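Hey team,

Filing this mostly as a record. A colleague (T.K.) asked me to run one chain through the structure pipeline before their review meeting, and I want the input and output archived in the tracker in case anyone asks later how it was produced. No errors, nothing strange. Just documentation.

Input sequence:
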Amino acid sequence: MIHGKKVVVVLPAYNAGNTLEKTCSEIPMDIVDELVLVDDASSDQTSKIAEKLGVQHIIRHEKNMGYGGNQKSCYLKALELNADIVVMLHPDYQYTPKLIGSMVNLIAAEVYPVVFGSRILGKGALRGGMPLYKYMANRMLTLIQNILMGQKLAEYHTGYRAFSSKVLKSIDFQKNSNDFVFDNEIIAQIFSSGYEIAEITCPTKYFEDASSINFKRSVKYGFGVLRVSFGYRLYKWGFYTPAFLKKRV
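Output structure:
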């Protein structure tokens, strides 16, 4: 715990067998109360390795549910465990677990309700091996998103995120896509609900075992991001409400 708040780290996993142990070894278990790993029908030994490492909660999807579908299972389980703070950490070791303490402290101290680890703040992205085309696409999409959403985030596309459970309980993330654009839909939900997002600089690593979508999927993701951003702007103007922004009835 930190400041009396229960911290649960969720690990959305897909074929993470080669990097899971390294990732878990750097998670600060002095402040993290429980780990949840969701194995999205991996073809390797991800679940068995998680068991050997002592991960307390392991969920295995019998069929691949997609990155967004994986996150839905992660967050539902964390809320079921009565987490006060939920951290999403990719188990592919692309993001350092050593920042968990800094991220959750901002939430536990009630400074911000959501904190992102940004690869773009500072100069770590290209130095860490991010392909140039992905870096440029990241910057261009982020610029467009900031304009359409009226925000000033350095990056909308990081997979390193910490949430107050209050935020996750107040938005209907289950309405979101099961694909990668889930990440941007949940940001739109957070902003539309009036919450702020803090960012801290996060070094990143790109290597063979680090998960990354290919060019074709990246293009599809990019168009999905634009759809979300334009939908959010139309929602703010009162012209249209995208499905993921419709309130619970």
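Quick notes for T.K.: The CA atoms of residues 4 and 108 lie 8 Å apart. Strands lie at 7-13, 34-39, 57-60, 85-88, 114-118, 161-164, 197-201.
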